[in-house]
Write a structure and sequence with these properties.
The chain has 192 residues and is an all-beta fold. The chain contains no helices and 16 strands. The chain is elongated, with a radius of gyration of 24 Å.
């Protein structure tokens, strides 16, 4: 649904500001005092009757169907979330999105909880995950149909994806789980 625009006029003059859809940022709005649309100017809702030309055109967004992020580092045993050094600029992405936040989480056996205090240290034989929130670039949007199979993190399958809306924009949370098993080092296979 692209939304609707409602206009009312008398003798071809707009009487009141149009009712714009919630996703108005997905449209290009052009107004002019000239009936042919020449000399476009910035829209001023308070002076709606001055316009003789009003054009509201949907600007299609490119839909993101797959997510690929690499460059995510993991804290070592004895380290905390303070030791995670990756930033939005240090990651490599697929086209049309970038990281806006990250969160270290620990699995309690029943639920995932935030584990971001400096005194929260990584331990052996405990399951953790890094949650990365991605925002689409201008002109892009995440498909609501993205599944775990459509996500790659550090060139391996991701451990989850969640698409959510904030206003008219879809964001993506992607997850990668890890643990440390004694001398074997990092394990990207979830503990059972």
């Amino acid at each position: 649904n692209r939304g609707t625009v409602t206009l009312s006029s008398t003798a071809n003059v707009l009487e009141s500001a149009p009712s714009l859809p919630a996703n108005a940022e997905d449209y290009t709005l052009t107004v002019s005092r000239n009936a042919d649309g020449s000399s476009p100017e910035e829209y001023d809702a308070a002076n709606i009757s001055q316009y003789k030309y009003f054009n509201f055109v949907y600007t299609a967004k490119e839909i993101i169907n797959e997510i690929s992020v690499s460059g995510i580092d993991f804290p070592e045993v004895g380290e905390s979330s303070d030791d995670i050094v990756f930033t939005p600029a240090s990651l490599t992405y697929g086209e049309g999105y970038q990281m806006v936040s990250r969160l270290l989480q620990k699995y309690t056996g029943t639920e995932w909880v935030s584990y971001n205090e400096s005194e929260n240290l990584i331990e052996y034989s405990t399951l953790y995950r890094i949650k990365v929130t991605l925002a689409p670039d201008d002109g892009y949007d995440f498909s609501s149909e993205i599944t775990d199979e459509d996500v790659s993190i550090n060139d391996t399958a991701g451990d989850g994806v969640e698409i959510f809306s904030a206003g008219t924009v879809n964001y993506a949370n992607i997850y990668i789980e890890f643990s440390y098993d004694g001398e074997a080092g990092i394990n990207l296979t979830p503990l059972n």
